[in-house]
Amino acid sequence: MATRSRIGVEIDGHKVLSVYCHNDGYLEGVGEALQEMFPDGTNPDEVLDYIKEGDRSTVELSYKAWRNEDCPPNLNESVVDFFDEDDVFIEYRYLYTQEGQWLVKSSFNFPSTPITFLDAMTVEE
Question: What is d(CA 6, CA 28) in angstroms, rounded to the nearest whole number?
């Protein structure tokens, strides 16, 4: 069974552009892969280019590249809307902020409120 997640980037004054990721959404999967690909301090425009590729099967593989499917990103009007969106199938939400930092929130487990990814990994250990 897949652990689904959403990966977002903060744009235009606190709006969020995000994509669905089907597999490995937990902290040690998508979370670590995103931190490795885009460490804190990365220019948010690099993350935005990644998000613009559309929904993903895995962090590394978009549906466009895998099955030639066009699955464009979602736009939330605020960071709060992104984290509080009611979708029972999304277990983790990852957000790259305009300040260049990853935040994470889990729908069912720890962390239940948005905290930095690095703080989440420290507490989980």
Answer: 15
